[in-house]
Specification:
Order of helices and strands: EEEHEHEEEEEEEHHEEEEHEEE
Strand content: 25-35%
Number of strands: 18
Largest sheet: 9 strands, mixed
Oligomer: single chain
Strand order of the largest sheet: 3-2-1-13-10-9-16-4-5
Number of helices: 5
Shape: globular
Helix content: 10-25%
Structural class: mainly beta
Length: 281
């Protein structure tokens, strides 16, 4: 299933993409795409619904973030060997963990704001993992049972604030609009192997990132198990699993960064495509 949320910010309604790529309303079945609606039992119930009989949504409404009621937006840094190499960093021995604030969450095609006084805003296409069944101390063997689905994430980052201004990475990662997720949540049963997905990102039509989740240092199941040692994972939590090479920071001979008036397009195989315009905050 491809679950989504449509409507104006703060007024999104739950929907599902049918086999012809049309949006149909799920309002008669779930309140929203989040929380208890992402538990395995709830998703199993949704699978019994005849999508062709659901009300069609007319027009081309805005797509909101594909998950509502996100409690935690947890991210993994330097998780692709080739990305670590382009930044000059050593291969991590354990996952590097940081947070994006939930106030950063944005619709997949909403404008991305370049923060005031920012000179080093960067892009990062990533595979997003959405937790269904929560838990603590999850084994790697059981980790995939806790995945409700996957989505595209653009982990927008302000590199000066992340790296040069002291403190943790969070400062440069959690600005408003820095977390587009969607266009939809693709349930786990539709993705045969999350470690075999191509992903790419373009800025103004120029391809900068092109990679595959096969080069991730820590796999999805390793990440879930690792995080669950330090926090309880809960339904609707979003995990961004790292980015392949090609970020602006790693550009040679010198870094390049986003400015207002540009367009980003990005995709993860099987999970849809995002497009954002950059604007000044």
């Amino acid at each position: 299933m491809k679950l989504l949320r449509y409507g104006q910010p703060g007024e999104e309604r739950p929907g599902i993409l049918d086999h012809e790529g049309r949006i149909r309303s799920l309002s008669g079945h779930i309140q929203d795409v989040g929380g208890a609606a992402l538990l395995p039992s709830s998703l199993d119930l949704l699978r019994t619904v005849d999508i062709s009989q659901l009300p069609l949504v007319v027009g081309a409404p805005r797509l909101g973030p594909c998950v509502a009621q996100v409690g935690k937006f947890v991210c993994i840094g330097l998780n692709y060997a080739d990305h670590a190499a382009e930044t000059g960093a050593a291969i991590p021995k354990e996952p590097i963990v940081f947070n994006k604030w939930v106030s950063a969450i944005n619709g997949p095609n909403d404008d991305v704001q370049i923060p005031r006084q920012s000179t080093k805003t960067d892009w990062e296409v990533e595979l997003g993992v959405i937790i269904g069944q929560g838990g603590r101390y999850i084994s790697e063997q059981d980790a995939m049972k806790h995945v409700a689905g996957y989505c595209v994430v653009n982990d927008i980052s302000e590199r000066e604030w992340q790296i040069e201004r002291g403190g943790t990475w969070d400062k440069g990662k959690g600005c408003d609009t820095f977390g587009p997720i969607g266009p939809w949540l693709v349930t786990a049963d539709e993705i045969a192997d999350p470690q075999q997905l191509s992903l790419w990102l373009e800025v103004d039509g120029q391809r900068h990132q092109q990679g595959n989740t096969a080069t991730m240092i820590f796999s999805v199941q390793q990440i879930i198990s690792y995080l669950s040692r330090f926090m309880s994972l809960q339904s609707g939590d979003v995990i961004a699993t790292g980015t392949p090479p090609g970020v602006g920071l790693g550009h040679k001979p010198q870094p390049i960064f986003l400015r207002a008036g540009q367009t980003m397009r990005l995709s993860v195989e099987g999970l849809g495509e995002q497009q954002q315009r950059t604007v000044s905050a």
